Amino acid sequence: MKELELKYGCNPNQKPAKIMISTGDLPVEVLNGKPGYINFLDGLNSWQLVRELKAATGMPSAASFKHVSPAGAAVGLPLTDIEKKIYFVDDLPLSPIASAYARARGADRLSSYGDWTALSDICDAETATLLKREVSDGVIAPGYTPEALDILKTKRKGTYNVVKIDPDYVPASTEHKDVFGITFEQGRNDLQITEDLLSNIVTENKDLPAEAKTDLLISLIALKYTQSNSVCYVKGGQAIGIGAGQQSRIHCTRLAGNKADNWWLRQNPKVLDLPFLDSISRPNRDNAIDVYISDEYEDVLADGQWQQIFSCRPEPITREEKKEWISKLDGVALGSDAFFPFGDNIERARKSGVKYVAEPGGSIRDDNVIETCNKYGMVMAFTGMRLFHH
Predict the structure, then answer these.
(1) What are the beta bridge partners of residue 59?
(2) How close are the terminal C-alpha atoms of the chain, in Å?
(3) CB atoms closer than 10 angstroms to residue 40
(4) What is the CATH superfamily name and number for domain 191-265+326-382?
(5) At what angle do helices 210-224 and 37-57 cross, to 10 degrees?
(6) Largest separation between any pair of C-alpha atoms in the chain
(7) How many angstroms separate the CA atoms of 191 and 301, rounded?
(8) Could you say which of 3.40.140.20, 3.40.50.1100, 3.40.50.620, 3.30.70.260 is the CATH number of the domain covering 3-165?
(9) Could you confirm whether 390 is annotated as catalytic?
(10) 268 carries an active-site annotation
């Protein structure tokens, strides 16, 4: 099959719409549902991410995509008991690929609401069971076990989008894009992201352990498929904060850092012990936690809204408590898709526990950025490779 008709394009008024290929057959097969234009944009970008992540780390990998950027990406390392609780998977058996998706989805659960999922490995029953109970638009993977496919076909009244992709498909070396009736052509960004990119360490501290290298690879590969400008914080094999599509790099760093802080705050004992009513769904718990750890919670308490969510009135977590808790976050890796123009990005990153940094370098203020890293004993590598994606 050389083309596949879609319901419509980015918006309902954009018709007709389809995906097509000029040579050979499409490398995708729709096993269930009817994916749309944005679904396939998310699907093909997210598949590239997890395929490269698996190749770079050797571990099963997953991504949670929204509007052509990852909300989360991770490898299939085992979850701690706390991670299982804050990701709402403490009642499920988790295979390595299911663990990867639980991590990817758990990084920023608010942004992952209604996501598109990508899996580097065959989707098994454990992953399908996890997918079935989350609010999600669809999944792309190189294959599905019969049991997994049966489970997914029951989701969303049988309309859940399930796409199989040929893992051996190799795209053309040049790619095209039409804007305003004009066709753009460029060489495909097929540069491989490997540990070799981390060899040019420019800071005084040059101690880059294996775990930090893996985290930096995850950040860089995630950035390769994130709308620019973009910055990605990673810890323990998963993205914990991604700032995408900002015009200013410091705004990327702040946005991603705030998400990393929220991920860490979800592990605070006060958050773990919130007395939710049994009737409160997972998405509503995510929303309530987001409000609880924000500065808006005092207003919610004052308005009495807590009675609709909690069995008793929770004690607030103060700004001082949040600041103290965030100060305990450490060993975080940070990647940037282009150079940091000022040391203020490093100052902000430090507040979210960043110790390892990878960026292309090449700014006229590189010395200032390096000096700021040295001030805090950070390790920074210049990759020499920009990762813009549009």
Answers:
(1) none
(2) 28
(3) 22
(4) AICAR transformylase, duplication domain (3.40.140.20)
(5) 160
(6) 63
(7) 52
(8) 3.40.140.20
(9) yes
(10) no
- Dist. CA 267–CA 238, nearest whole Å: 15
Dihedral, 126, 97, 71, 139 alpha carbons, nearest 10? -60
Which residue among 45, 229, 268, 345 is the active-site one?
229
Catalytic residue among 67, 85, 132, 351: 67
DSSP assignment of 173-230: SEEEEEETTEEEEEE-------GGGG--B-SS-----HHHHHHHHHHHHHHHTSPSSE
Q: 3-165 with 191-265+326-382: one CATH topology?
A: yes
Given this model, what pLDDT does residue 300 score?
A: 66
User: Can you say how many angstroms the Cα of residue 184 is from the centroid of all Cα atoms in its chain?
Assistant: 28
Distance CA 213, CA 204 (A): 17
Helices (H), the chain: 37-57, 81-86, 96-106, 125-132, 146-152, 210-224, 249-265, 269-272, 282-292, 297-303, 319-326, 344-350, 366-375
**Which of these is catalytic: 32, 39, 66, 213?**
66
Q: Is 66 a catalytic residue?
A: yes
pLDDT less than 50: residues of the chain: none
Q: Which of 3, 254, 281 is nearest to 134 (CA)?
A: 281
The ranges assigned to domains in the chain are 3-165, 191-265+326-382, 273-316
Q: Using alpha carbons, list the distances in angstroms from residue 256 to 9, 72, 259, 291, 354.
A: 29, 11, 5, 18, 12
Total-model pTM: 0.95
For residue 21, give both structure tokens: 């290929």
Tokens of 328: 């305990």
Which residues have CB under 8 Å from 22's CB, separation 6+? 2
